Automatic annotation (TrEMBL):
Keyword Cytoplasm appears in the UniProt entry: no
SMART domains on file: HTH_ARAC (SM00342)
Keywords on record: DNA-binding, Transcription, Transcription regulation
Gene Ontology terms, MF aspect: DNA-binding transcription factor activity; sequence-specific DNA binding
Origin: domain of life: Bacteria
PROSITE patterns listed in its UniProt record: HTH_ARAC_FAMILY_2
Pfam name, any one: HTH_18
Transmembrane feature ranges: none
Native species: Spirosoma terrae
This protein's name: Helix-turn-helix domain-containing protein
Length: 271
């Protein structure tokens, strides 16, 4: 199993979190189900492996197109994968895709949408180039060139909404939105409308998503073994254990102990 992240060029960094490549050789001996909490990021994905399905947490099982846009996830989702894995993706900063492409991300929440339906022929051409690319570095270069062209077309339109959304990411969701908007002299209602348009959820809800995403990332780094729950809970900004369990269960659909057990079994299998 091969998974690698690539950093964008510095001029794209305000809009792009990373590029990633995920592949496996040989093919999977048996199907696997991978469960992910909401990450706080949206992406464009180009799949050159076998087709797979996504359970988006709303009792909808979606067969993903060969090239698709992922909207902002508001709850845990599951990937059912079999055969050959091969995909490359652009992971955007929370408001980055809306700023670069003018999309209303509220319309795409919890969804996987065919990129050709959104952008037309240019995406068909980009996917064909990715399929024909000889190696990973060439695929990443194609994505960079595509984004550079879009940035030149759109111009530098990074605004306060981008800044605040990125700040929520940097602070791992541990932030008081009301205090922040007051400090920046932002009209709260106007800001909330703009944030919903560019990110797909409200600022306060996004902070909650980012906090649970950070906590789950910490669990994964520790290979799902927790030495001190209290330290982890308070580090991630939860008031107490009951607050943490309530939030965790709402976003993942499982209590922490069961979620960790399921992911530990998957980690051992993939290792």
């Amino acid at each position: 199993m091969y998974y690698r992240k690539f950093s964008p060029s510095s001029h794209l960094a305000p809009y792009i979190e990373c590029y990633y490549v995920w592949e496996n050789k040989p093919t999977l001996a048996q199907p696997i189900r991978i469960e992910s909490p909401p990450t706080g990021f949206v992406s464009m994905v180009f799949n050159y492996g076998d087709a797979y399905t996504v359970d988006n947490g709303r009792h909808e099982v979606l067969r993903v197109p060969p090239a698709f846009l992922t909207g902002q996830a508001t709850q845990s989702y599951k990937l059912d994968i079999s055969g050959r894995i091969g995909m490359i993706g652009i992971v955007f900063k929370p408001a980055g895709i809306s700023t670069l492409f003018g999309l209303s991300m509220y319309e795409f929440a919890d969804d996987r949408v065919n990129l050709e339906d959104v952008f037309g022929r240019p995406m068909t051409q980009l996917r064909e180039q990715i399929l024909e690319a000889a190696h990973t570095d060439q695929r990443v270069q194609l994505l960079e060139q595509f984004l550079n062209r879009q940035l030149l077309k759109k111009g530098d339109s990074f605004d306060r909404t981008d800044f605040i959304a990125n700040l929520i990411v940097d602070r791992k969701g541990i932030i008081n939105i009301n205090e922040l908007t007051n400090d920046l002299y932002v009209c709260r209602r106007q800001f909330e409308r703009q944030f919903l348009h560019k990110v797909g959820v409200s600022p306060k809800y996004y902070a909650r998503i980012r906090r649970i995403s950070y906590l789950c990332a910490q669990l994964a780094r520790q290979r799902w073994k927790v030495a001190d729950w209290h330290d982890l809970i308070y580090t991630c900004g939860y008031y107490d254990q009951s607050h943490f369990i309530r939030e965790f269960t709402q976003f993942t659909g499982k209590r922490p102990t069961l979620y960790i057990k399921d992911n530990l079994e998957l980690t051992n299998y993939l290792s």
